[in-house]
Amino acid sequence: MTIERDDAALEAALAAARGRTIPPDDLVARVLADAARVQAEQMAAAPAPRRAGWVQGLVAGMGGWRAVSGVSLAGVAGLAMGFAAPDLVDAWSGGQIWALSGGAGTMPEIGALWDGAWEEFGDV
Amino acid sequence: MSQHQPADSRLSDGALMVLFANGDPGAARVLTERLLPRALGHAARVLGDRAEAEDVAQEAMMRLWRAARDWRQDGEAAPATWLYRVVANLCVDRLRRRGRTDPLDDPDLAADGAPGVVSQMVEADRIAALDAALASLPERQRQAVVLRHIEGLSNPEIAAILDIGVEAVESLTARGKRALGAALAGRKEALGYDD
């Protein structure tokens, strides 16, 4: 019986303490002021959207990096084909490249270019 | 014109945290209404000092605001659990700084708003006796008992708050409740239970 009464006493005390604690108004005001200050700091510190530079603008104008990559790849492929099989390229053009280049064809003589440069600037 | 819609009081605490981080001016008010009483109540019971409890509750809420920016609804604990953990740790710091665990006689700890003068006095006596008994418990037992039997949290929630296992919580609350009962046994008169 004593144990039951002790349990009842404990439960009564716990139940009394379970009542909702009401924070005083000045504490609520302090907490809300803290919240407003922290919120303002965090909003001010949030990174602003970055302005795109001229390179990004150019790339965007060409259709994005994917399009730029495609153009670059096509250029490199054309150059490689020209070096690897210049006669084939000339044949595809119907001999136009040969005719327009004055017989130099698609692959100028590298040695001739070198000699030409020396004739232009003379011995140093 | 406000950039954000006012916080909806039906939203979860986690959703309100996200709204707060997005600059919603009403989210802080709803979160304060929900969480501040719990933080204050827990701190007051564990510390036995209303002024110190208010400091702890304000500090814990400040940490909550600061945590909002990185809050993830899916990965974090519930804000209430997170806040209880902060309050528990701040209370431990304060108790260790005090270097003592004896109760402080603080009449402000009596229940707020009990109806009728006589019943209010009886209830205040019961709470004062309970606070004195709580203060006699070791710090971990006290935290566990307050969270379980006064704040009404589940054992897994308490385990997350105190960073211990569920079995340890069960052990702490059982031993704590027995010790409380023993401490209150000699004070039945104060509790309104005459033999």
UniProtKB/TrEMBL annotation, chain A:
Name used for this protein in its record: Dihydroorotate dehydrogenase
Organism listed in the record: Roseicyclus mahoneyensis
From TrEMBL, chain B:
Family: Belongs to the sigma-70 factor family. ECF subfamily.
Protein name per the record: RNA polymerase ECF family sigma subunit
Species name: Roseicyclus mahoneyensis
UniProt entry keywords in alphabetical sequence: DNA-binding, Sigma factor, Transcription, Transcription regulation
Domain of life, per lineage: Bacteria
GO molecular function: DNA binding; sigma factor activity
InterPro entries per record: RNA_pol_sigma-70-like, RNA_pol_sigma-70_dom, RNA_pol_sigma70_r2, RNA_pol_sigma70_r4_t2, RNA_pol_sigma_r2, RNA_pol_sigma_r3/r4-like, WH-like_DNA-bd_sf
Ranges of residues in domain RNA polymerase sigma-70 region: 32-101
GO biological process assignments: DNA-templated transcription initiation
Keyword tRNA processing: no
Residue stretches making up the RNA polymerase sigma factor 70 region 4 type domain: 129-180
Pfam families: Sigma70_r2 (PF04542), Sigma70_r4_2 (PF08281)
